[in-house]
Amino acid sequence: MNTKLNRSDFIVLAVYFLVSFGIQSKDYYDRDAFLIEYLVDFPAQIIAICGTIFVFVFWLIPKFVNDKKKYILFAIFGVLTLILFTAFEYTIGFWSGNNDWEKYPKGLNFVIYMINTGSQQTAFPFALFLTKKFYEGQNQYLKIEKQQKENELKLLRSQIDPHFLFNNLNTLDSLIDSNTEKAKEYINRLSLIYRYLIQTKDAEVMELSKEIELAENYMFLIKTRFENDYDFQIDIKTNIEDKFVPTGAIQTLLENVVKHNKPQNGNAIKTDIIVEDNVLKVINTKSNINPKNESFGTGLDNLKTRYQLLSDKEVIIINTDKEYNISIPIIKLIE
Is the dihedral of CA 53, 58, 63, 69 positive or negative? Predict the structure, then answer.
């Protein structure tokens, strides 16, 4: 709970007291109260109620509840606070009303009366104030959490790009000498990918249609690098408008296929990208031979973490001896 006072705190309490005093003024008028009662009772009530609220919120709760969990001391000091402030207000009112001091409550009756009266008159403004501070604290927490998620997502995104660049520079270096035309096309596709990465560097999710275009450019790079070693197919079974996935998600999944599978006995690694209404699946055949190239990225782990930060939906992986099937949720921002 946010324990700092702000302008709106005073506005809320001021509105409450204006309404409350307006109602009480009618009662005072009906019983022909003295002028001094108007001038003294209302300020005393403001002091008593605000004093009780502020002592609870800014001293008792932080000192005995938040961390130390000293509930017995909290209860004792809370009751004493209520009695003292209510006694102050009651005594002022008793005096201003020119009452008979012989009728002033004493002993246990005094304690019970102060607790009962203080509880009744403080309950609503106290609840009003606490509710306001609670929701302010919740909003502040959500803002901090959102900022933390954005920072974490940007960090995770930054971990992907260096690995991608490292692999493609190695490929381009060998391709320039062997096939210049292919090298030009490779550079063009690579530039499209990096232009996309630059344009979307601050976007946590992107339109599925644009991510598929990115995947097509990435698949061209893979086909150029490995020729017939990898076979990719895209099957779109649903309308992809107003649907999103984490930026670079499909590229990450395709990179995962190449990283963990190498063709053997002339059999290509077949990969199907299937877009359904709520999920995008990448299903690839497996081989028993792992590629020798190093991987400095955290690929799939990053993608899982990003989904944990972006939504309550999880990445589902089905790994068998012959097939690797990964499903990522499609995010719908417009329901």
Answer: positive
Is residue 224 packed enough to be buried (19+ CB in 10 Å), middle (13-18) or exposed (0-12)? middle
User: Phi first, then psi: what are they for 98, rounded to 5°?
Assistant: 55, 45
Beta strands in the chain (DSSP E): 205-207, 230-236, 244-246, 269-275, 279-285, 316-319, 323-329
**By CB neighbour count within 10 A (0-12 exposed, 13-18 middle, 19+ buried), where does 68 fall?**
exposed
Question: In terms of Cα–Cα distance, which of 157, 213, 167 is closest to 189?
Answer: 213
pTM score > 0.90 for this model? no
Which one, of 95, 109, 105, 77, lies nearest residue 40 by Cα? 95
Pick from 205, 210, 270, 212: which is nearest to 237 by CA?
212
| Beta strands 323-329 and 279-285, pairing class | antiparallel
State which residues of the chain have pLDDT below 50: 294-297
